[in-house]
Amino acid sequence: MQSENRFFDDLSKIINGAAGTVAGVTREFESNARERAREWIGGLDFVSREEFDAVKAMAAQAREQVAILEARLAALEDAAPKAAKPKPPKEG
């Protein structure tokens, strides 16, 4: 009976060792895959979230300024005398 217990003890040690090896290989694979993904994504022309948010804020500010300038231009055009506006050339 002692030999059977020894066999199972050795088998248990082998299985535990194999499980540890598989876990290590899995961690190594995941690490390599993450590194490859970072390299691949880093090579593309993506912008960071901070850069995107900064450009988005600049575009919103520019839109506001355009709206203000359009309103001022419309007010100036309405205030201009009708005679001062150039007449289209006559065809003929």
Keywords summarizing the entry:
mainly alpha; 2 domains; rod-shaped; 92 residues; 2 helices
Strand and helix layout:
Layout: H1 2-43, H2 49-79
Mean pLDDT, all residues: 85
Strand content: under 5%
Order of helices and strands: HH
What is the number of beta strands? 0
Describe the structure.
- The structure is a single chain.
- It is rod-shaped, with a radius of gyration of 37 Å.
- It folds into 2 domains: 6-46; 47-79.
- With 92 residues, it is an all-alpha fold.
- It has 2 helices and no strands.
- Helices cover 79% and strands 0% of the residues.
Brief write-up:
The protein has helices spanning 2-43, 49-79. It has 92 residues and is mainly alpha-helical.
